[in-house]
Amino acid sequence: MTGPLLPRPVLPRPVLPHPVTGASFASPVPPGRGWPGDRAGPSTPEAADAGMVQELAASAPDLGALDALISRCRACPRLVAWREQVAVDKRAAYADQPYWGRPVPGFGQDRPRVLVVGLAPAAHGANRTGRMFTGDRSGDWLYAALHRAGYASLPTSHHAGDGQQLTGIRIVAPVRCAPPANRPSAAEQRACEGWWSRELELVEPHLEAILALGGFGWAATLRAARLRGWRVPGPAPRFGHGARVVLGSPLREVRLVGSYHVSQQNTFTGRLSEAMLDQVVAALAAPGQQRPAASLDLPP
């Protein structure tokens, strides 16, 4: 006769050393344990739904507080389950490393002149390292270009805590969790919108230019600008590599520049070259420091 079924024991999550600091972490990483750049603590509130995202985002007085709140968000069950499962399963190449496995805040200066807007964290890139565009081939391309232009202190970005510093620039994503197949649902995009809108509001006083990576980043930027009450030309400006449009914030004009995304799909196929990326990054410079548009080979 078979006895009663007993619950399966909950096994402790293995702890692994951080590649830079050597400190040990479980995956996903609990807040307040010393992960490089983690601004959250155990008492940082968690957003459980889109309404709480709006409420908590509005309460953040600065980017430090906003980053902490973002990194504890659990508003989208599908994304929470996916990012945490990836952190537990890991890619074989990173089996000896802890995975961040939480939403990824923006990275860079708190008073940036330039924003770089992507799509969402990569499952084995930022979802592993906890820093935007860090730890994957897309980041290799982006940070190398930013370094050539003087925005990044290092041409590489492998791990949080590696000494990388950005000057005058901040990198963000409208969706903060790694989505399955890199495709967040419309509902997930809307749920995350509160974080993105508040971040744009907090950087608005100093912002002069935005680089949108891909059509997703372009559309998300235009939508956030409209929600913030910025002046956006009509009809809706079309995305393209090198596309440019002037947006009107309450404080100044902000130049929006489009670029093909630095995804491997674009860089491996040659659709996006280093020269093309350098051209759009150069277009972010202050007007008095830009080369003539003709030498950039960009549309007027």
Descriptive report:
This protein is an alpha/beta fold and 300 residues long. The protein has one domain (16-287): 3-Layer(aba) Sandwich (Uracil-DNA Glycosylase, subunit E), CATH 3.40.470.10. The chain contains ten helices and eight strands. The chain has helices spanning 50-59, 63-70, 77-89, 126-129, 137-148, 186-203, 214-227, 264-267, 274-282, 293-296; strands at 16-17, 24-25, 107-108, 114-117, 169-172, 209-213, 244-248, 253-259. The strands form two sheets. The chain has a six-stranded mixed sheet. The protein has a two-stranded antiparallel ribbon with strand order 1-2. Helix 1 (50-59) packs parallel to helix 6 (186-203) and helix 5 (137-148) crosses helix 9. The longest helix has 18 residues, at 186-203. It is globular, with a radius of gyration of 20 Å. Residues 291-300 have low confidence and may be disordered.
Defining traits:
300 residues, alpha/beta, Uracil-DNA Glycosylase, subunit E, six-stranded mixed beta sheet, two-stranded antiparallel ribbon, 10 helices, 8 strands, disordered C terminus
Short recap of the structure:
With 300 residues, the chain is an alpha/beta fold. The chain has helices at 50-59, 63-70, 77-89, 126-129, 137-148, 186-203, 214-227, 264-267, 274-282, 293-296, and strands at 16-17, 24-25, 107-108, 114-117, 169-172, 209-213, 244-248, 253-259.
